[in-house]
Amino acid sequence: MDWQTTPEDTVPSRVITERTRRTMLGKPPATGAWRDGDPVGDRLFVTLDDLELESGETLPRPRISYETFGTRATDDSNVVLVLHALTGDSHLAGPAGEGHATAGWWHGIVGPGLAIDTDRWFVVAPNMLGGCQGSTGPASLDPEGHEWGSRFPRLTVRDQVEAQVRFADELGIDRWHAVIGGSMGGMHALEWAVGQPERVARLGVLSTTASTSADQIALNTVQIEAVHMDPGFLGGDYYEAADGEGPYRGLALARRMALLNYRSPDELNARFGRGWQSELSPMTGSGRFSVASYLDFHGNKFTRRFDANSYVSLARAMNSHDIGRDRGGVTGALSRITARSLVIGIDSDRLFPPRDQVLIAEGLRGAAASEAVILPSEFGHDGFLIENEAVGNHLRALLEG
Question: Which of 59, 127, 190, 318 satisfies CB 3.0 to 4.6 Å to 65 for a cystine?
């Protein structure tokens, strides 16, 4: 299997385009964020009223970037909300091209005739608040026309979902046929179902948790620190650095750290073993192990489509996640869910291990009651993005049942 064309993380890229190969040459840009003036691609935009955040700060008139797939029914009976993971975006399906650095991250699940059949369902996919692909985030311009940078307010998952709720209001969608999300998107989906139960008919959560654990917070914290330690970070205000140097080294290191938790040990061992690149052995001090080259390639590639400040903002938001906070604990929060529910985990996931999904399922009551579906996969956390047939069969049943 060619590791350069294998889905490697929460936004797998199965096709390395010639454009991608060209942009991999030379120093990365200060930010890989989509900026106003860049090709729009398939993006649409909605601007919200001022958003009061849990921190007490106000984010003025945030914008949500989104894409849609399929045709909306006149009675909204077919509307489905799909929420992306940490490094994802609104581009669920479709090719890479102008405006979209990578091909759709769930193109094996979303599309005509697929599990989330766009001939039947109208799919809405917003880019997360705090992200860097069109929704308001640290690389966006403030009301004075300057990048937010270090001044961008701290967000929580609940802040992000509140923005999504207002976004749905702007679209005139009162109730979703289904809300589906994996990993960080699963956190958002749970928050929707707990906080807005009357607006969610069906719930699909994949490879996620009801509250971020100390272990998961620790993993996010060291990745945040890797970004902060890059001299090019400049406290978060690197967008107009005189030398054009951004914190790409720290961002690439954070990405490499994350990849170790997205894939399973067995898969990495089977794919790479102790092999090395070229004819030079690592034992001589000149060669490199193949797995190190794999991590370097994807770290380097990532810096060309993401923003370091957004990575920090979103990782911190993940750390805030606890559906039980001020709701009587996780069990009390889960008991609020009324949606018909599907909970999927991956047996080899070391980021959000199966016990996290079992705990979610055990807390569901009444019409929402469901057993966790733990799928076998060698791909670890990324299995929910790669095991299209197994995942798709369960999602299809959820939507059509």
Answer: 127
